[in-house]
Amino acid sequence: MSRKISIRVLAEELGLSKYAVSRALSGKSGVSEATRQRVMELAKTLGYQHRQQAPALQTGEREQEPSAPYILVCMSHAHSANAVYWQRVLNGLLRSCDELGYPSIIVSPEPEPARADHSPQKEIAPHLDWSRCGGIVVMGNLPEAVLSLIARAERPYVLVDHTDDLTSCDKVNNDNIEAGAAITRHLLSRKCRHIALITDEAWSPSFEDRLTGARITIGRQPEGSAKLTEWRIRYGAPWEHSLYERMLALAPESRPDAWIGANDDIAIRWMRKLQSEGYAVPAFTRIAGIDNVEAATLVTPSLTTVNLCKEELGQRAVEALIRRMDRPGAPAETIHLSTRLIVRDST
Predict the structure, then answer these.
(1) Where is the HTH lacI-type domain (predicted)?
(2) Residue 1: what pLDDT?
């Protein structure tokens, strides 16, 4: 007796979720065109009849479309409170989940001593029904202990705006190296010859990537024609006064003639500090940032910056996770979204 060809059978044959197969057969969004073609070809080969085309079935025989698995979003409390960047990334992610028909749940896992009687899933979010979790999106930095739990949770996951060389998984980032390079090239085009980059290496991997882009660009200049100095701060604490004192300790001819903030907030705070001490921008020095937050257009002078995708970053993360859910054996991908230089009055 031949077996009944159902959505479950197709899913098992293709290595896909029942939800993905159902949406492909129904012509709905949420699966790639390549996946849709694979599903339709196998369904035709095996003689599957979609319920919309099949004769009316007896009560109770109608095959129900599987409910969508939920997408778990893991992000720190600090990111949750960041309205100018992370909230916009999250808005893009949630909008994409809604458009594609996936429920979403947001948690902020806290590292705690592991318990032998708890699975990684229960360590991350003990209150959830993990049988319905389709995959995980990790937003920004999380402690290594939490990332280790996520890696062992037996669910596909995607890192967003986070670089972890030890983890083989899909990653969606802005091209932070190019952002650092673009703003440095711009300042060089303004005849700046001593560029200082204000950063906190411990704050975010993206800060280090932006510094790397600046270093690469300066390194390509003729020897001795341009200089890059790194001015380290503790971003989470007041830093403007100590940085200003450090600048004053330099002879006037040794001071930078341009400054890059590792993000717009750093650049704006430094510009305000210099202005409060009587230094004009850009007449005394040029200042630029990276991010293109709304405040960059509101300060005087308006801040030159590099636009980084925010809502699009969240959208692409959902797309990458659905791809991973549909094709669990596919090679891991790292996606870099392009940047755009925005020249304003501060340079």
Answers:
(1) 5-59
(2) 38
